[in-house]
Amino acid sequence: MENINFNDKNYYFNRELSWLRFNTRVLSQAKDDNLPLLERLKFLAIYGTNLDEFYMIRVAGLNDLFKAGVTGESADRLTPYEQLVAIRTYLHKEKLEVEAQYKEITQNLIAKGVNTANFENLTIEQQKNIENYFLEQIFPVIVPIAVDSTHPFPHLNNLSFALAIKLKDEFSLKYGLIRIPRVLPRFIETLHDTFVPIESVVQNFASTLFPGYEVVSTAAFRVTRNADIAIKEEEADDFMEILEEGLRLRKKGDIVRLEIQKDSDDDLISFLRRHINVDEEDIYRYSIPLNLGALWQLVGQKKFAHLTLPIFNPRILPPLDKNENIFQVIERQDLLHYHPYESFDPVVEFIKKAAKDPDVLAIRMTLYRVGKNSPIVKALAEAADSGKQVTALVELKARFDEENNLIWAKALEDAGAHVIYGIPGLKVHAKIAQVIKKDGNELKSFVHLATGNYNAATARIYTDLSYFTSKKEFNEDATRFFHFLTGFSKQAKLKSLYMSPSQIKPKLIELIENEIKQGKNGYLILKANALVDEDMIKMLYKASCAGVKCDLIIRGICCLRPGIKGVSENINVISIIGKYLEHPRIYYFKHAKPQVYISSADLMPRNLSRRIELMTPIVEPELAEKIKQILQLQLNDNSLSWKLQSDGEYIKKTATNEVVINNHKILEEYANRIYRSTKKETESRVKKLAARLFKES
To answer: Which residues are catalytic?
Structure first.
């Protein structure tokens, strides 16, 4: 091991290219003939939304570095310019696959009674119906814009969608735009379940917007801007005010991508490029409708629900199925829930009950992405309004949720809660809630720790772990944690829980080192969304060299290169892509005591060194065993699992002659069977049934 240079660039995959491969795996779901057609279309929508954010943040950031003359290299030794070249090459090639999949899916949907068609391909009856819709619903809100010496080219907000238009009269050519507001639907539904892209409708009636001019040509286009917000916190007297200014500036960031209809008029493209400063390599010409993320409009049609995977109803399982007070249950035993198979309702109920319980004195929470119409935040506001001490850290720097979090922060303040907006220089990503309750002359504390956000909507589509406990040592740490957030402290360390940036990474390194001491008997499983941190990768290489078997379940970015002879032969990396977004962070070490930890922190520099995160040891053998069974089930998955190769490509695992193991389906069935069994079986028999189900899987 001493002779190995763990800094060798050949031992690392590029972060950005690894992310692109993750999105390719998402795109591959759209090609899966085993999935219902609208389910496949859904993955195209997810692919497009993912790519929008990638360009807004990652490509925009690389552009900034390149323009600033930064030549610093990543672990794989690629400069910002080299990364940009590789990204553009990859995406221009993949665009052909995206177009092919859209066309195949929409063509197959016709046989299922769902038709997407341009205006010119509609029947006369449908065209008349669309014309009426245009005059009544589109014409009053559409925005025609002339562009000439007296009409400047307008500002286009991030992700703006518009038509460029070339017009003529008897004297000259004119150019302009037709802005299509976001309040209008992406597809206009007409007779016989036919959906028409709105640009096709507007293009057909464009002459009504410019009376007296003949329309020569039009081109639908969409712009993407740099959406990263740089906030100099040390200069911020009022953090909310400066964040609001940052949100306004986001709309004005440099344009980093132009998407446009394929075979558009060259004059129109020249017209746009005179006013839009974007590199030729960042222009993507599509032969399908722009803005794949808007396909959710079609996917979400309730009348076509049979063309998606069946909706699973999360279950409330023992011991919470008897309508017993949740605080009494937590006081009796610790609880571990695996969402969405087990319902998120108990988490909401935990806060709601606390808000209404006259014996509850205080509620404390961190809020990162809570979503709109959050029942949890409403309960916190009610608790504060009733006189309870409510402390909420609302992380205003949660990317793309800043505006929503600003609204909630102000609402909580108005209700009388003590609201913290974040910690200078650090993003608070920890997921924790604490309730302090008076019981006679005593105070009792209850804490909830999780891997995912307090968001009831995403809890139905993300897999995550929730842990409830009344353990004294964990609650004392929770109190220390919130005191650290609200006050001044130079000793930001906990005793039983682990907090980044000071504790999680050293603890993980210590746990890996302990497995290294076991040599070939060592074993670890790390499940996370991303593995980027170089120190962690080097530790895993050292573990592999020592003979430790390392199973890694990394959904997205993985910069570690497995299968290198003499370096990473003992490391297996898989990625699971399926019905649910894999979101938990779980860390298992065979020879540790305890063996299992759950965390809000991914294995990335930002999580381990630049964020406030929490990692929780699972000390109860029964709960730890449940987590180990989940991990083993996912490692055995041969339906949703992709195996990372040493060249950076991923190969999908297939069942061949084995039993098909789809961990999402199995866990749904597990929850359903336990739920049904509670009607006739005791709690102990339910636990045995659960253990048997996992073993059988």
So the answer is: 429
